[in-house]
Each structure stands twice: as structure tokens, then as C-alpha cells.
Design a protein that fits this description.
By secondary structure, the protein is α/β, with parallel strands linked by helices. The chain is built from 28 helices and 41 strands.
């Protein structure tokens, strides 16, 4: 909302302060600066505030605002006087204001760095976390304007406001003066304030998802009067799944006398329903969606699933239509799945929601599935159904204009019904946030991701995302650092998901292989080696093996302390007449299941070849038996088309209806042995469950290998590394900041600027990174003078871009130990490669011999700050043998970084060579990480080469680029992604 021309004489309207936020109850609101055009809104808002809240705000009865008050509260300079409002439906529900003050409490201007702050929240919206969210945003605004402290006067009885300040996590002081509590908050973010902010973000975003997945009532908007069509299909699927809440059909073209459709109450608008609706499924043409959204917003609908197409996937006009859809929905406090969505499914027995185009609700299970593509969603549902897998929740978000995979990671993190999260993603709208959430979720349950559109270089239609400059291999490495199981295909995702959902995590990579086919066992053995596992020699039970033989062998393998996992291979039996027999798959499945249930908790997978019924029998070991479905009043999808409610067992026994499910968090389910489950518990404990079966050895082994790597990451994540403090005088952050400010100047070029050699050396020296001096040698005399200054022996190098770091082209001459040798090398160099002006020769003192490596750090718009390491030359440039970690890197990250490249043995004494000083190398990596993390203006650093000797190392070359700090959407106050 732009201000009137008379608004701020001092500063332009700060539209970057506008933000959509998710509140504690899962609803959304908009925060924006207050302008002169808000006078009527402010007066209306104040009239709806109780006398008690007014008293707490002004310390006296204050029934109405005077004209002078209204002018004061709507006229700001956005520097010394700032007001923010929270709006829902365009109307104020809360305000906050700060006024800069001096040491005596009088109005002041900069450089005064303290401000008085005051809040007012409409009583109907208190308890939704409005004030806490406002505090985050007004604090960020204040820091931007040079304010470092807030002062607040609060009446002792105003416990809610005191709690807002106390729980924010900022450093604060409290005193009691003149009958009020005087609070002073230091606005510098702390580890506690950031933790508080992210915990609130998780609870709010998880709640917003839960409101969509566990509604008490659903309205399908766009249900056709005749069979067929999207709306009628969704209605049929809701009824077929046995949704436990109330269902309504809405069609504006219905006649007044048409009271039902498929036995469901039918209405021409939501206003006719006469009771609250929690979720609306919108299945009308795109040009009619705004009308439907307005109807939903005005009648308190909490969330939307928009199946309608015709949005960003249709070009520029559709993109603008999509932005307007999100703006409109959020203005009413609603969140959206879609548009162009396939729908959502929640298999909880308390909900049984199928608000999707999938005709059959999949079996209940422990897997949560999110996909951006409807087509991929259909394929995944079909594949999981064929293999007998069960889902807890399914979401196909289409263009994911609002709700995204990040939101569902927030939900699944504490969802007791989900043990494994599977995500098919075509884009990452907020990669930094995704990595942070994935790391936290992966610490308690596996996260398996397939990333589509990896190499196309384009973003799928409808997905507004930052453009990444890093290759997909780097994205994969960063995901693995966060504990994400990154796989290449949806088949691999299902393979891994089945094993992780139904088997305990392996304690290591030692694999026992047993079966009735020597050849299949050997194939499995080879694949295990290729995947980095440690297989034991296969146990051949021969083709004459019976199910009892399989059971005995599996029991023995599981009992063996030298075995961490077992792969069973099975082919059809050969009968006495020499003909192959498919055998009784159910009998073999029973034998394997019995052995797995009785043995220690170790993962078991089966590779089978054409054994009829085996896969089905293995997957059916824990098939969910359909329970009698409880009914709710007045109408549920479990009701028959004739309108007769089907009572639940409890209802039949007591004569009372079962309660309507609420949107509260589901309770933790009991485990299969009858013991209570715990939300978020990792699946390390043994559980009698299905044994995953695979038609090929490589698929089973690859899934097991992913589980082994993930289990290792989990063990390491339990004791995370530390970011060193470097509490010595080699780190000078203030000095580095001053140099950066001076180098960028007051009006920096947004494209940034590269630093010269000496400038880069001086900046790096602020963080204890010593770069060997290099002196220019435009002629032989200058080269001799430089060598005399540096001391022999020296190296003569060209620095022309086409020859830089290319010793193979003859542009580097080493170990020049005399003036004569230097003059001779200079002549040879210029004669062979060109004139000095073209070659740009330099002289550098020789460094101890060692292994040439390269250390880089880059700020990527999508992924954030990335630290990279590899060997210099062909290994990293030609073969791509480079490892990556996110910044800030821990001591463990640095150690893993240098050990994770394929050429790492060169650093540790390969072929009898002396091992190099990897401790010194790890320290340089950590210092580079710290520099980039402390100063976001440093957008790239390259140390090349870094020669690592048996004792110490030498940085021979360095390049640094500075730029104005890029925007960070993962820090600062909570906000939803822009549309």
C-alpha cells in the first residue's frame, strides 16, 4: 500500500517491510507500514479494542482517539517514527509503533540508538502470536534504522505483554519504576532469539498445514449437477474414502430446489451452509476462482485446495492471475495448496480425507509423500499401491504458489503418523530454509528427495525461484550434508522409502547375503561392493532349499554380531521333474517374517525372481485392516447415499454419536506391540512389519546403501561439530569490515568489484590467511629486483587469464636459484609464449613442495554460502572431483571436506609419499568459512593453489570479489515467500 504524496518528507515508503506471516493458529496475516491513508482503519480498529486493552496501552481510560492522535499515529518519517499494522481482510487487527528517544526519554534523531515501543492487539486476536510476530518485524526495522535498544513501559497487570518481551530471547533488563515495569531490550539477535523465532515458525507453519489436512468440514466448490467433471470426482472420492467430517457441495448454478448431490447437502454459496467450513476444494474455471475465494474468505474458511488450472503454467497472464490468487487468499488469512493441484490425502483414521483426483485412498502407512507434479503423484501412488506400501499423507501441490515442501517438512517433523518423508521437487523456492528444515527433520526421520529439472537450466512453469549458479552435483552434496537422501528417480525414492519405513536402521555396512541361487548371490555381492558396502561371501542354500531352510539361515545371519543387514535372494524352486516351480510365495514370506520378527533388529530386504505371490505376501505382513468407520453429525462422507448415518461401534454401544474430529494435533499412535508411540521417534527399534521385496539386486542394494549412509549421518549428527571461535589475534572482524566498507565505497556498484592482489592479501590477513607476496615483473630487470627483494629460490609465473594456473603450458618456471637462472627463464618464457605485456609475469618466493589444492567459497543466490575443496588442476577442473559444504562449516565439515574427494588418498601418503599437513588445511578451510559467514559482502574467494606440505602450507594465489550484500530470505523476521 503506497502512501499519499504528503506522507514522509524524510524517507520513501519502505515496501520491503511488507510481509505475509503465519500466526500461531496457522492463519495468515499481512504486516505493513502504516500510512496517512489509514486514518479510518485506525479509528475502526481502536473502536473494537476493549477498555481494558486501551487502559494497558495508555495507562488511563482512553475511550477514543482524538484527531491529533489519529494524525500522530498515521504520520511517520519511517526513520525516527515508525508504525506497523497487522491486517486481515484489509482491516487492522494490531499495531506497533516506535519513537526514537535520547538518554532523557525525549524525541530524538540519529545518532540516538534507543526507541520507545508500544503494541496494541485487538482482543479477538490476542493469543494468536500477533504481538510476538510484530516484535520480530519492528525489531528488524529498528536495526535497519540504526536503533539498538527498545524501551517499553508496561503495567504490572499486563502479563501478556510482559511475556511477549520476556520470551523473545533478546538480552533484556527489567526494573520497577513509578508503578510500571520498565523493560529494555537489546535488539542484537542472539542464539536464543533465533531459536525462539524458528521454533515459533515451525509451530505456526505446521499448524497451517494441519488445518488443511485435518478439517472438520469440507466444501467442494464447482460440483457439477451431472456426473463427471473435476468437482464431482473430488466429491465422490471424499465419500469413497469415508471422510469423518461434514461434506458440502457448492455450485452457484444450482436451482433452489436441488438440495443434495450424491446424498450430500448442496448449496449455491458458502453463505447458505449455515455452519463453519474448514477446507474448500476449488474446482471452477480460473476466471471464477476469485469469486469463490472471496466467498470462502468472507465465511471463515481456513484453507484452500485449488485444483483449477490456467495459472502460471499458461504464461505471463497466468502468472499475474496466480499472484493475485495468493494475495487474495492471504488477505483473508487462508493458505493455498495449488493452483493446478492434484489434491491432498490424509489417511489418519480420525480424518480419512481424500480431497484429490485419486480414485482410491491408498493404504494407511508411515510414509508422507509430497510432489509438485500431478503426473508424478499419480505414478507414485500407483507404484506404492502395487507394492503394498501405505501412506500417512499425500500432497500434490501443483504450482505450489503458497504451501510448499518446506511447510510439509515443518508438519512432518513432529507428525507421529509419519516415519519417512518422500518429496519430488522440481524447484526450491527457499533453498536455505529447505536445507535448514531438512537437516532438522532428518535428525529424527529420513527425508528422501528426487529433484526434477536438474539439467534443463529452466524453472518449471509457475515456480518463482532464485536462479542458481552452482551445478546439480553441488546441490546434491549440500543436500547430503543436511542428511537428505538424494536419489535420481522416483523408483529409487520408492525403493528407499519402503526399506526405511519398515526396517530398522543398520548399525553399519556389513551385509550378509543368502539365498537359493549362487549366481544371484554373486550379483548382489558385486553390487554391494560397488555401493561401498562390506558384503560377506554369499551363503548358497542351493535350489533345493525349503522355506524352513530360509528361515534358519536368516535367523543365523541376524544373530551374527558381524552382520548389520541381510539381503535374501530367492528364485523359483526346481521340482523333481526338472521343471521350475514358482513355489508358494506366502509360505516363504511367512518363514522370512517369522525369522525377522524373532531376531535382533536389523534390516532385511528380499531380491526375488518370478516367485508368485512372494512380494504381495511380504508386503501384506502388516496390511492395515479396515476398521469400522465412525460417523459424525450432521452429515459425513461415511454416510450412505440414502442419508442414513453408519454409526461407529462406540456409537452403537452407547447410543451417542462419535465426536467430530477437530483440527488439533493428532495424538501419538500406539505401536504394534501395544506400547505408546512417541512423536518423531526414529525407527531404530525392531518392529514386526513388511519386508521390502525388489525385482533386481541393484535396487535392493542401492536402497540398503542409502539407509547405511543415512544411519551413519544420524550417528554423527547426534554429536555435531563446532564452528571454531578462533579466539586469537589472527582474526580481526572489525578490521575486515572497515576494509570492506572502504573498498566498496559509499555508492557500491551492484555488480561488485574484484580486489587487486594486495587488496585481497590485506583482507585475507584479517582472518589469519597469509598469501605469499607476488611482485610484478614487466621486464627482466624488474624480475631480478623482485627476486632480490624476496630472496632466492623464486618462481616466475605468467598471470594472463589464458595461462593462469596452467603449468602444463609452460607458463610457470620453478626453483630459480640465481639471477642468471631467472634471466634465462624470463627470456625463454617471453620467446615461447609472447610479450611481457601479454603474459603479465610475476615473481614469487618458492614454497615448500607439497600437494597443490584449491579452496573456494561462493555466495550462490539459491543455495547460500558454499565452501568447496579439491585438488588443483585436472582432478577438480576436468573430472569434477570437488567437495562442498554449507557455510558456516564446522570442524567436522572441514575434516570431511578434504576426505570426501575421490583423490583424497594423495593427501594421506598415497604410494609411499609423505602425508601432508591436513590439520593446517582444515584450519584454512575454517578461516575462509568464517570470513564469508561474517561478511556477506565477500561473494567469492578462490585460494589457488594452496600447496600443502608435510609441515604447514602455503597460499600462493588468491582472488576475492566484493559486492553489496545479497538479500537473505532465511534470516530476519518470519515471513512467507513473496508471490
Amino acid at each position: 500500500m503506497q502512501p499519499s504524496p504528503e506522507q514522509s518528507p524524510h524517507h520513501a515508503y519502505p515496501d520491503h517491510w511488507e510481509a505475509d506471516v503465519v500466526l500461531r493458529d496457522g492463519g495468515t496475516a499481512r504486516i505493513r507500514p502504516i500510512t496517512t491513508d489509514d486514518a479510518e482503519r485506525l479509528v475502526s480498529f481502536y473502536e473494537q479494542v476493549s477498555d481494558e486493552s486501551k487502559y494497558y496501552r495508555f495507562f488511563a481510560p482512553y475511550p477514543r482517539l482524538s484527531a491529533k492522535d489519529v494524525h500522530r499515529f498515521t504520520h511517520h518519517d519511517y526513520v525516527d517514527r515508525v508504525g506497523l499494522a497487522v491486517t486481515v481482510g484489509g482491516e487492522f487487527i494490531a499495531t506497533v509503533r516506535y519513537d526514537r528517544i535520547d538518554a532523557t526519554g525525549r524525541p530524538a534523531s540519529a545518532p540516538a540508538d534507543e526507541a520507545e515501543v508500544a503494541f496494541l492487539v485487538q482482543d479477538a486476536h490476542q493469543g494468536r502470536g500477533v504481538a510476538s510476530t510484530l516484535l520480530e518485524h519492528i525489531a528488524a526495522v529498528a536495526r535497519e534504522r540504526g536503533i539498538r535498544r527498545f524501551a517499553a513501559e508496561v503495567l504490572p497487570a499486563n502479563n501478556k505483554m510482559i511475556k511477549v518481551f520476556r520470551d523473545a530471547g533478546y538480552t533484556q533488563q527489567r526494573s520497577f519504576e513509578d508503578g510500571s515495569v520498565h523493560l529494555t531490550l537489546d535488539l542484537e539477535p542472539t542464539a536464543e532469539s533465533l531459536a525462539v523465532q524458528r521454533a515459533r515458525e515451525q509451530r505456526a507453519e505446521a499448524k497451517s498445514v494441519q488445518r488443511l489436512l485435518a478439517p472438520g468440514s469440507v466444501a467442494v466448490i464447482g460440483v457439477g449437477r451431472t456426473p463427471g467433471g473435476v468437482g464431482r470426482t473430488v466429491l465422490r472420492n471424499l465419500l469413497g474414502a469415508g471422510f469423518t467430517g461434514r461434506v458440502h457441495a457448492v455450485n452457484s448454478a444450482l436451482s433452489a430446489d436441488q438440495g443434495t448431490i450424491d446424498g450430500v447437502p448442496a448449496h449455491r454459496s458458502l453463505g447458505e451452509i449455515g455452519e463453519p467450513v474448514d477446507l474448500a476444494v476449488v474446482a471452477v474455471p480460473a476466471d471464477r476462482v476469485p469469486e469463490a475465494v472471496a466467498d470462502c474468505g468472507e465465511h471463515g474458511v481456513q484453507g484452500l485446495v485449488v485444483l483449477s488450472a490456467g495459472y502460471a503454467e499458461w504464461g505471463a497472464e497466468g502468472r499475474e492471475r496466480q499472484r493475485e490468487l495468493v494475495r487474495q487468499a492471504r488477505s483473508y488469512g487462508m493458505r493455498i495448496i495449488g493452483p493446478n493441484a492434484f489434491g491432498v490425502i490424509n489417511n489418519s483414521e480420525a480424518v480419512r480425507l481424500n480431497a484429490s483426483l485419486a480414485p482410491d485412498r491408498p493404504a494407511s502407512g508411515r510414509i508422507g509423500l509430497f510432489t509438485q507434479s500431478g503426473a508424478i503423484g499419480i505414478a507414485l501412488l500407483s507404484g506404492l499401491y502395487r507394492r503394498g506400501a501405505g501412506l500417512s499423507t499425500f500432497i500434490s501441490a501443483g504450482n505450489r504458489a503458497d504451501i510448499s515442501g518446506n511447510d510439509f517438512l515443518q508438519y512432518w517433523y513432529e507428525d507421529p503418523d509419519t516415519d519417512v518423508a518422500l518429496l519430488y521437487l522440481e524447484s526450491l523456492g527457499n533453498p536455505r530454509k529447505f536445507t535448514r528444515l531438512a537437516r532438522r527433520t532428518a535428525a529424527v526421520k529420513p527425508v528422501v528427495v528426487v529433484k526434477g529439472a536438474r539439467h534443463s537450466g529452466s524453472t518449471p512453469p509457475g515456480h518463482a525461484v532464485p536462479v542458481s549458479r552452482i551445478p546439480d552435483s553441488t546441490v546434491s552434496a549440500l543436500m547430503r550434508q543436511a542428511g537428505v537422501i538424494r536419489v535420481d528417480t522416483v523408483t529409487e525414492m520408492v525403493d528407499a522409502g519402503l526399506l526405511l519405513a519398515d526396517q530398522p536402521l543398520p548399525a553399519g555396512g556389513r551385509v550378509a547375503i543368502l539365498g537359493n541361487s549362487e549366481s544371484l548371490g554373486l550379483l548382489t555381492y558385486d553390487v554391494c561392493l560397488a555401493e561401498g558396502l562390506r558384503p560377506r561371501p554369499p551363503i548358497d542354500l542351493t535350489t533345493a532349499a525349503t522355506p524352513q531352510d530360509f528361515r534358519d539361515a536368516l535367523s543365523a545371519a541376524l544373530a551374527d554380531g558381524a552382520c548389520d543387514a541381510v539381503i535374501v535372494t530367492a528364485i523359483p524352486w526346481v521340482g523333481e521333474n526338472g521343471e521350475a516351480e514358482s513355489g508358494d510365495g506366502e509360505v516363504l514370506a511367512t518363514a522370512l517374517h517369522a525369522a525377522a520378527a524373532a531376531g535382533p533388529a536389523k534390516p532385511v530386504a528380499v531380491v526375488h525372481v518370478e516367485i508368485g505371490g512372494l512380494a504381495e505376501a511380504l508386503s501384506a505382513a502388516t496390511s492395515t485392516v479396515a476398521q469400522p468407520r465412525p460417523a459424525t453429525q450432521p452429515f459425513t462422507a461415511a454416510q450412505s447415499a440414502t442419508g442414513t448415518p453408519a454409526a461407529s461401534p462406540s456409537a452403537r454401544a452407547t447410543g451417542t454419536p462419535a465426536p467430530t474430529p477437530s483440527a488439533a494435533a493428532p495424538t501419538s499412535p500406539a505401536a504394534e506391540d501395544g506400547t505408546p508411540g512417541a512423536p518423531g521417534d526414529p525407527q531404530d527399534a525392531p518392529r514386526i512389519g513388511r519386508i521390502p521385496a525388489y525385482p533386481a539386486a541393484e535396487r535392493a542394494v542401492r536402497a540398503l546403501a542409502e539407509a547405511v549412509r543415512y544411519a551413519q549421518w544420524r550417528r554423527q549428527a547426534a554429536t555435531p561439530g563446532k564452528v571454531p571461535d578462533f579466539l586469537d589475534d589472527t582474526i580481526d572482524p572489525p578490521g575486515a569490515a572497515a576494509r570492506i566498507d572502504a573498498l566498496l565505497g559509499e555508492d557500491p556498484d551492484p555488480r561488485g568489484r574484484p580486489l587487486g592482489h594486495d587488496e585481497a592479501r590485506e583482507l585475507l590477513a584479517c582472518y589469519g590467511i597469509a598469501v605469499r607476496p607476488t611482485l610484478p615483473a614487466p621486464g627482466p630487470e624488474e624480475a631480478v629486483a623482485a627476486a632480490a627483494r624476496l630472496g632466492y629460490p623464486v618462481a616466475l609465473k605468467t598471470t594472463a587469464p589464458h595461462l593462469r594456473h596452467r603449468a602444463d603450458l609452460g607458463g610457470v618456471r620453478l626453483d630459480l636459484d640465481s639471477e642468471a637462472a631467472l634471466r634465462r627463464a624470463y627470456g625463454d618464457l617471453t620467446e615461447l609464449l609472447g610479450k611481457p605485456a601479454e603474459l603479465r609475469p610475476v615473481v614469487q618466493a618458492m614454497a615448500p613442495r607439497g600437494v597443490d589444492t584449491v579452496v573456494r567459497a561462493t555466495i550462490d543466490p539459491a543455495a547460500g554460502a558454499v565452501l568447496s575443496f579439491g585438488l588443483a588442476g585436472a582432478p577438480s577442473e576436468l573430472l569434477g572431483d570437488t567437495a562442498h559444504r554449507l557455510v558456516p562449516a564446522t570442524d567436522r565439515d572441514a575434516a570431511e571436506l578434504i576426505r570426501s574427494i575421490r583423490a583424497a588418498p594423495v593427501l594421506f601418503g598415497w604410494r609411499g609419499a609423505a602425508p601432508v599437513d591436513t590439520a593446517a588445511l582444515e584450519e584454512v578451510l575454517l578461516r575462509v568459512s568464517r570470513l564469508v559467514d561474517d561478511h556477506p559482502e565477500v561473494v567469492s574467494i578462490a585460494l589457488e593453489p594452496v600447496v600443502v606440505a608435510p609441515q604447514g602450507l602455503s597460499v600462493l594465489g588468491a582472488s576475492v570479489r566484493l559486492s553489496p550484500p545479497p538479500a537473505r530470505n532465511d534470516l530476519g523476521p518470519r515471513r512467507l515467500s513473496n508471490y
